[in-house]
Amino acid sequence: MFKKTSILIVIAFTLNACVSKKVYQELETKFNKLRASNTALIEEKDQLLVSKKALEEDFEKLQNEYAALENQNKSLNDEYIALQNKYKNLDESYTVLATQSSKKLAEQSKKNQELLVQLEEKERKLVMESERLENLQKELNKRSEQIDELQALIDAKEAQMQHLKNAISSALHNFEGKGLTVVHKNGKIYVSMENKLLFNSGSWAVGTEGKKAVEQLASVLSENTDINVLIEGHTDNVPYRGSTLIDNWDLSVKRATAIVRILENKGVNPTQITAAGRSEFVPIDSNKTLEGKAKNRRIEIILAPNLDEISKLLKE
To answer: Which InterPro entries match (predicted)?
Structure first.
C-alpha cells in the first residue's frame, strides 16, 4: 500500500508544472524511507549468510565434541573391561584362598568389595556418557538438518536468480551491447540501461527503443512474482537546466518512476517494485570525460530474491 501511495504522489507531482518545497520534501522523505528499506533487505541477506556461517561453525564444534566424547567413552569402556577381568581373576583367587586363614579371606573379600564398587561406578559413568552421546547425536542431527534445509533454500534462490538472469538475457539479447548490460552477482541481477537507450537529454520520457527493452524485461518479471524489483535513476554531475524540475535529484526520480509505469502497465505487480533516485552521487565512471558521463547517466534495475522463507527458518 505504501508503494502504491508513493507512485500516486509521484504521478500527482508529474501533473503539476511547479512543485512546492513542502511536497518535494515529502517526496524526498519517502524516497529516503524506500532507500532505507532497500538497505535493510541487503543487510537482511548479509545477516542470513552470517547466520548460516555461525550454524556451520556450531555444527563443526558439536562434531568435535562428539568425537571427543566417543574417545572418552571408549576409554571408559576399556577400563571397565579391564576391571571386569581383574575382578574375575581376583574372584578365582578368592576361591583358591577360601581354604586359607580367615584373615586372608577377609582381606580378599574387602578387595573384592572395593572392586565391585569401582565397577558399579564405572558402569554408572558409562550409562551417563551413553545418554550424553545420544543427546549430542540428536542435537547434531537437528543442526545438520537445519543447515541442509537452509543451504537448500539458498541454493534454490541462487538457481532461481540464475534462471531469471538467463531469461532476461534471452529476452533482451537484441539490446545487449547497445547501452544495456545484464549481470548476476552477490545473489542479485543488475540490469543497467544507459540513458542513450532510454531518454533524451534532460527528459524523463522513455524513447521507442528504450520502451521496447523495458517491456521485454516486464514480460519476464511479470512471471516472477516473488522477485523484488528496485529501479534506480542516476545522472551525471551536470546540473539540470530545465524549468519543470528542481535539480538532478528530481530528474533521477522522474526517470525511475517512468520505468516503473512501463513495468506496471505490462503486468508487473506494483508491490514488487521500488523506485529510487540517486542523482549524481553513485557514479560508475569519472564525470571528467564525455564517455564517463554517458555511463553515469543510466537506469539500474536491481532484482533480488524474496528471503522470507530463509528468515522464517532462522527464526525457528
So the answer is: Bact_OuterMem_StrucFunc, OmpA-like, OmpA-like_sf
Give me the average pLDDT of each 10-residue run along the chain (316 residues): 48 53 83 83 76 82 87 87 87 73 78 86 86 82 75 78 85 82 90 90 90 93 91 94 90 96 95 95 94 93 78 59
Question: Residues near 258 by Cβ (< 8 Å), separated by ≥ 6?
Answer: 199, 204, 205, 206
For the chain, how many residues are written? 316
The pTM of this model reads 0.55
Round to whole Å and give the CA distance between 179 and 192: 8
Indicate the residue type of 112: N
What residue spans define the domains of the chain? 2-54+161-315, 55-158
- State how far the Cα of 136 lies from the Cα of 64, in Å rounded to an integer: 11
Q: Which three cell numbers stand for residue 38?
A: 532497500
Nearest-5° angle of CA 239, CA 241, CA 243?
A: 135
Looking at domain 2-54+161-315, which of 3.40.50.620, 3.60.15.10, 3.40.50.150, 3.30.1330.60 is its CATH number? 3.30.1330.60
Structure-block grid coordinates of residue 312: 522464517
DSSP-derived secondary structure letter, 206: P
